Amino acid sequence: MPIQQRGLNARNWLGFLPFLLFCLAFEFVPIIFLFRGSFLDKTTHQFTTNHFLSLAKPLFLNSFWNSIKISGLSAIIGVIVGTGIGYAIYRWPSEQFRHALIALSDVTTNFAGAPLAFAFIIILGMNGVITQFLLKYFQYKLYPKFSIYSFSGLLLAYIYFQLPLMVLIIIPAFAGIRKEWEESAKSLGANTFMFWWRIGLPILTPSLLAGLTLLFANAFGAYATAYTLVESQLSLVTLQIGYMIAGEVRHDPGIGMAMAVMSLLIMGLSIGIYQVASLRARRWLRS
Amino acid sequence: MEKNNIVAPLSKSKNKRKPALWQIILIFIFLFYMLVPILSTYIFSVATRWDRTILPEGLTLNSYARAFKASYFNSSLRNSMILSLSTVFVSLCLIIPTVYWVHIRFPAAKSFLEVLMILPFGIPTVVLALALVQAYNVTPIGRTPFLLIGAVFIYSMPFMYRPVANALRAIDAHTLTEAGQSLGATTFQILMKVIIPNIFPGIISGSLLVFATVFAEFTLTKLIIGARFKTFPLLLVEYTRINGNVAAAFSVISFTIAWLVSLLILWVSRKGQGASAEALRAR
Amino acid sequence: MAYLELKNVSKTFTNVVAVKDFTLDIEKGSLVSFLGPSGCGKTTTLRMIAGFEQPDSGTIILDGVDITPIPPNQRDIGMVFQAYALFPNMTVRQNVAFGLQMKKTPKDELEKRVKDVLEMVRLQETAKRFPHELSGGQQQRVALARALAVRPRVLLLDEPLSALDAEVRVALRGEIRRIQSELAITTIYVTHDQEEALSISDRVVVMDKGLIQQVGTPIEIYRSPQTRFVATFIGTANQFFGKVAGKKLIVSDGLKILVAKMNSFKEGEEVVVLVRPESIHVTTEQQKREGWNSISGVVETVTFHGAVTRLGVNVNNRRIVADIVAAKTEPISLNQKVWLMFPIDVCQVMAKEG
Questions:
Q1: Chains touching A, CB cut-off 8 Å, 3+ pairs
Q2: Which of A140, C25, C88, C252 makes an SS bond possible with A287, Cβ 3.0 to 4.6 Å?
Q3: Quick one: which of C94, C160, C168 has its CA closest to C130?
């Protein structure tokens, strides 16, 4: 390509325009309106921070706390257990089996939503398979201590799609730890624990952080699974916003937008850290 | 590559080793957790009654019969297909030329494009729905399938972008473009006759991914249009509150479509690897 | 008793025999090269000495102790890998200090050792940098410093220079040899590059297909190869296939070649006579000299190699290669008829196989 044709001149913007316009129309402009609306008093058309202040009310505060709690818990459990499973898969001798498990993870991590929620109702609902199993063979009454239609139930469902996501993130990270590093360390007198502590784990850390933040964002933004499973039983940010759109609750729309803006900030922070961490992780893989 | 090369075995290919006990336990727990919900759904969809016993009391295909006869069954499948195929079409038309253009003519925009493709992951679907509904409610496209297609496109565009961008990188698009130009072709001709045929596996993967993602999409559809454009996932959720067995049947149909698409993607990417390896060798 | 002894060490991988019956004594403080083509077993043998592979049979004895059952992190053997293998999350200083930390060396001594060894490889200023900020040659020097910091009993190098540019390779191999002699550390150096092996080793072990072909000093290996493999792997050799036709005569396709040493070959046996290109004198007129062979041919190719010019001469439809020093010979042109003369004592007679 001749030098004068590349670069930032007007003609080159042209080719980029259709796509950019589409993004503007369906992504950026609406979100800018969202920000605007969150600071706007509907009646007086004046700037106000009231909507954000209203979020401190117990109803909304509760929903934020629940969302952060479930996202954080499912992320931490997902990272810890997922890393263990990922390592078990990585060190499995049969290549075919490894590929099969990775393919399975690929499919199950996308399995969130209503079918997943429903599947959990089938197994852990009041008359669920596992509920009955525990009753029959262990005389253990799962209900009413536990309910699938609650925070803990939803947590179990969230873990279902968080685990394989972490597995998919961590296996390439293990592959990036070269055998020569372990052998070098051994030739210098380190045992296996020392190697992991001084070299393996530090190299793995960006991937672990990436996993944590991605899983957090993944859970925080989830809607369909929660809608199907807990609906009115549990207050979550995404559910609240959903109610406001559907007109199922009568709040000042500004509050809904303020909630949305807060969510964007939380998600933005999460994904931001994720980007930085995964770039760092990729650097190790390249060396 | 000489095959008589005696290579020291890597930790991954020690075929004589057996897995350790901790590995077996962990994998067993993993498989149990992943497969039990799915298998239970399959069994529930063919069960007569299953709320008092460990195993279903009887088996029947009744639920499927009821499912196929459900009102809105045909229309919801049709709507889902329309939505998915339209989104794939829009994605193909918008993303492929843009990615090629940026790659060849506008590399300064590359990191901007990458950021744009990460953004959808940072925007919860409810937030996107709220933003779009608020912005377009008073306009003609408010609460119409067109707005929905726009929303769903934004949501699914990274899934088309990634395979296509990777494929483009793998074929050395620069050299091919220069070769095409030296033979008198315009950019459009090169794109259609040279680039697209060579990144075809990537395009197919991307299309399948977008299709599968949109087919299973619930949130945007419900919040932007809702009952006026009932897609398959909406129907499924409805039935979870009405008739569990039929909902299970719908779930099974949902999974099956998802598995098929995944298998197709796997098959295409394997064939694609062969093709691009072939192309690289010819160089 | 030698410092490092390998006795009948063998290793098989699935269906392939990697190393067969490897027996070798290595003197303390010497630099021994394992030289051979890819897949000859040299790296496998090295890794068995390091402890990363277990021999199927045989023993490895270091300073009188059988180290075969001892795990690698307790053998006190330093290793430098082809791919440098520097820990990417640590600075140069931290990398070099690692082994000393494993040995719980006290802080003062640790700092001093690290400083000394970095000076030895001339990289003191890079101490605070990370591996990815260094060039390939620098990284390899750090890897060397890291292995040497703990003063190992044996130093193993697995093709340390093959990932580097030619210029860096030549400079660095000289450095490695210098440091090795200064420290008088027993060293084993694996390479497929014969120039490398010949230029720095005290002794060379030539290997092929898992077996030792020959052990000797570089000069012995080059001037007195014992098998056809060694003769053709090291340097170039012209091969005359023929039959023994007398006490000192071999007939090869109509050519009569006189040799000084027939070894134990009998009349009628099929043999190969090897003659190195640099031993051949090229003349434009036929000359008769006592104790010299003389064969004629036509020059087909002339290739200029700088210090030496290589001629490809057609002798009875066979290509014979002769090297001439341009400055000392009259210019030779294509299609010229020449006589190739070589003394009978540079002719190596070997069995046809091997």
A1: B, C
A2: C88
A3: C94
Q: Do B4 and C16 touch (CB under 8 A)?
A: yes
Q: C270-299 burial string, b = 16+ CB within 10 Å, else e?
A: ebbbbbbbbbbbbeeeeeeeeeebbbebeb
Smallest Cα distance from C38 to chain B, Å: 6
> Are residues C13 and B5, on separate chains, in Cβ contact within 8 Å?
no
Residue C103 to residue A189, Cβ atoms within 8 A: yes
Instruction: Quickly tell me which residue has 């992943």 as its tokens.
Output: B34
All domains of chain B in start order, with CATH? 21-60 (no CATH), 71-282 (1.10.3720.10)
Give the predicted TM-score (pTM) of the model.
0.79
- CB of A191 within 8 Å of a chain C CB? The answer is yes
Nearest chain C residue to B4, by CA: C39
Domains and CATH numbers, chain A: 1-38 (no CATH), 52-286 (1.10.3720.10)
Query: Is C34 in the same domain as C176?
Result: yes
In total, how many domains does chain C have? 2
Which band of pLDDT confidence, cut at 50, 70 and 90, is reported for residue A127? confident
Output the six-digit token pair for A272.
């931001």
Stretch A32-36: mean pLDDT: 91
pLDDT along chain C (354 residues), means of 10: 90 89 94 94 94 93 93 88 85 91 90 94 92 91 93 93 90 93 95 93 95 94 88 89 85 84 82 90 86 91 88 90 81 88 88 71
Pairing of strands C77-80, C154-158: parallel
A181 touches chain C (CB under 8 A): yes
Chain A CB contacts of C79 below 8 Å: 183-184, 187
Q: Is A187 on the interface with C (CB under 8 A)?
A: yes
d(CA A21, CA B256): 36
Q: Is B8 on the interface with C (CB under 8 A)?
A: yes
* Interval B202-207 mean pLDDT: 92
Question: What's the pLDDT tens digit per position in A217-275?
Answer: 999 999 999 999 987 788 999 999 998 888 777 777 888 899 999 999 999 999 999 99
pLDDT category at B283 given cuts 50, 70, 90 is: very low
User: Residue B70 carries which side chain, given as an amino acid letter?
Assistant: A
Q: Are residues C188 and C311 in the same domain?
A: no
From residue B167, give the alpha-carbon distance in Å to each of A40, B113, B270: 46, 16, 13
Name all chains with 3 or more CB-CB pairs below 8 Å to chain C: A, B
Q: How many CB atoms lie within 10 A of CB C21?
A: 14
Predicted-complex ipTM score: 0.88
Chain mean position to CA B112: 24
Rounded CA-CA distance A74/A56 in Å is 25
Chain C, residues 277-306, CB within 8 A of chain B, namely: none
